[in-house]
Amino acid sequence: MKVGQTGDPAKRVKEHENAAMAHGISVARSWVSTPHVEFEDNEAALIAFCSERWPTTAGREAFESGDFAEVVEYAQGLPYTRLTEAVLEAHCSASATAEARGHAAFECRMTLARLNELAERAALAGSLVNDGNRSAACDAVYELAKAGVSLHPAPWTAEDPTAAERYLLARGAAPEAARRNATEFELSFRTLYLIEYRREAESFEDIARFCDAVTSGPAPQQQLGGVA
Questions:
Q1: pTM score, two decimals?
Q2: DSSP letter string over the chain?
Q3: How many Å from the N-terminal Cα to the C-terminal Cα in the chain?
Q4: How remote is the C-alpha of 214 from its chain's centroid?
Q5: What's the sign of the alpha-carbon dihedral 126, 130, 136, 138?
Q6: Which of the four pLDDT bands, split at 50, 70 and 90, describes residue 16?
Q7: What mean pLDDT comes out for the span 183-206?
Q8: Burial (CB count <10 Å: 0-12, 13-18, 19+), residue 56
Q9: More confident call, 135 vs 107
């Protein structure tokens, strides 16, 4: 038997049903109170009530051989100040926001871990360069850097998602070719920019100037280093 509180009862009950199904069992009965102000105090009271009567099986909210009817009867006797729709909506919105932030933080940690792994592999590949494998090592470093750059969008993506396509069109590419090649072109030159300057481009103008300098022929290192 499980007790607890949630801002989305239907979703929570479904999660318990899925968890039970994974173990070859099912949820036999469930009871949900009306939305109320005292939900945290009442959850604590229910946990204390059950803890005094039955051993826990997992965490502090699941109990072995609990009496469902007895627990529901106790729960129904607890104080309930009904939440207004406005307060309930605000609570659900806050819960959804917190969940989204938690997911975003997890994704950020995973991305950073992947970037660190790629950086270590690139450093290793670079340290093993010699006259016999220079071309292959440089290709390996480029591919690792490209994989890292691809983990997050360019800083200008939200405000100017077609910048690369317009750049290719302005330099004579056919419309269909510009659309087809824009994503790979942008990713490739973001990678080359990172390798050249050891920092990411902050705007597509950085990429455009770098590409123009590269495709126009060799340029003095001082000039390239001065590109902002």
A1: 0.45
A2: -B----S-HHHHHHHHHHHHHHTT--------PPPBTTHHHHHHHHHHHHHTTS-EEETTTEETT--HHHHHHHHHTS---BPPHHHHHHHHHHHHHHHHHHHHHHHHHHHHHHHHHHHHHHHHHHHT--TTTHHHHHHHHHHHHHHHHTTS--TTTTT-TTHHHHHHHHTT--HHHHHHHHHHHHHHHHHHHHHHHSS--SSHHHHHHHHHHHHT----HHHHHT--
A3: 63
A4: 35
A5: positive
A6: confident
A7: 90
A8: middle
A9: 135
Among 18-27, 94-103, 119-128, which range has the highest average pLDDT?
18-27
Residues 6+ apart with CB under 8 A from 47: 3, 60, 61
Residue 173 and residue 181 in contact, taking contact as beta carbons nearer than 8 Å: yes
Instruction: Report the range of poorest mean pLDDT among 22-26, 36-40, 97-101, 142-146.
Output: 97-101
Q: What percent of the chain has pLDDT over 90?
A: 33
